[in-house]
Design goal:
four-stranded antiparallel sheet; 169 residues; 1 helix; mainly beta; 11 strands
């Protein structure tokens, strides 16, 4: 019983901690979050049927702009290096069903800086060749930069997307 109470308290704390920093955003609204301007727009709405039920299908767009003087950078030190913390903001549609492989959230990520690396090597026939390969050198989000993304949310018929946004930086 003690373990169950502890587990419930821990789960509740983690769940609430995740959504404490989230703010509601609606169609056409712009929010300033930690020096980033986040805009959410509904582009299109149509009704669809899935599994015998009616739903509303929304095509949405979101843009984040760095309005601060702070640049976000992640420089890679070796290749290949796995980087998992390149997300800037996350928009979560609380009432999205995820039906028909549609989205429940949008994650806006930093831009990748691609560097062309030239290298020389012997090919299978023994011939010495020079080749160029694109390599990700860093991730960045400079002051004044904008990043946009689109998604499709399917929600119960008659409802609008209930979207919250939170900064991951």
């Amino acid at each position: 019983m003690k373990n169950l109470t502890f587990l419930i308290a821990l789960t509740t704390t983690i769940f609430l901690g995740t959504f404490v920093n989230a703010q509601k955003i609606s169609d056409g609204q712009t929010l300033d979050i930690n020096g980033m301007s986040v805009t959410f727009n509904i582009l299109n709405k149509e009704s669809v049927e899935s599994g015998g039920k009616q739903y509303d299908r929304y095509k949405v767009s979101t843009t984040v702009k760095n309005t601060s003087d702070k640049a976000y950078n992640i420089r890679l030190s070796a290749f290949p290096q796995i980087v998992s913390n390149i997300n800037l903001v996350e928009l979560d549609c609380i009432n999205a069903t995820g039906a028909r492989l549609t989205s429940k959230k949008i994650e806006l990520k930093m831009k990748a800086q691609i560097i062309n690396v030239t290298y020389s090597a012997y090919d299978k026939s023994g011939k010495f060749t020079t080749s160029t390969i694109p390599v990700t050198g860093s991730y960045y989000f400079d002051p004044g930069d904008s990043i946009s993304d689109n998604a499709i949310f399917i929600v119960p018929q008659g409802e609008k997307p209930d979207v919250s946004v939170r900064s991951l930086r």
